[in-house]
Structure formats: structure tokens, C-alpha cells
Amino acid sequence: MVFExxxxxxxxxxxxxxxxxxxxTKFGDLGIDSLDVMEMLMSLEEELDMEIEMGDNKVESVxxxxxxxxxxxx
Length: 74
Description:
Structural class: mainly alpha
Shape: globular
Number of strands: 0
Radius of gyration: 11 Å
Strand content: under 5%
Helix content: 55-70%
């Protein structure tokens, strides 16, 4: 569920197909910078109805972001 929401947000932002986004996709390869990641986190907070703090987490790929969010959901 988390992956699907992230993939949909990225596809919408990048105007590409959702199928182009995988767990291994790196944000840098997509031209997504840290500000874009923060904007995406704010959107995800609203959609998932939870607070997401980056803290010291290094988020470089879709998998990193999915793992961070899922760890906060449990």
C-alpha cells in the first residue's frame, strides 16, 4: 500500500507511468532532490494520516522511503 502511494505520487509529479517506478528506483536517477522528497512526505502524511519525520534516515530510493514509513506504522 505504501509503495503504491509513493509510486503514484512520483508518476504524477514526473508525468510518467506508474509501472516505471520500482522499489529499486533511486530519487537521484529521477531528478528528485531533497526538497521534492520533503514535499512528497507532506503529501504522504496527509494520505496516510500519520506524521513522518526523516530524522537521521537517509532516503535515497523508493525502498528506503517505504521501509521508513512502514517502520513508523507498526
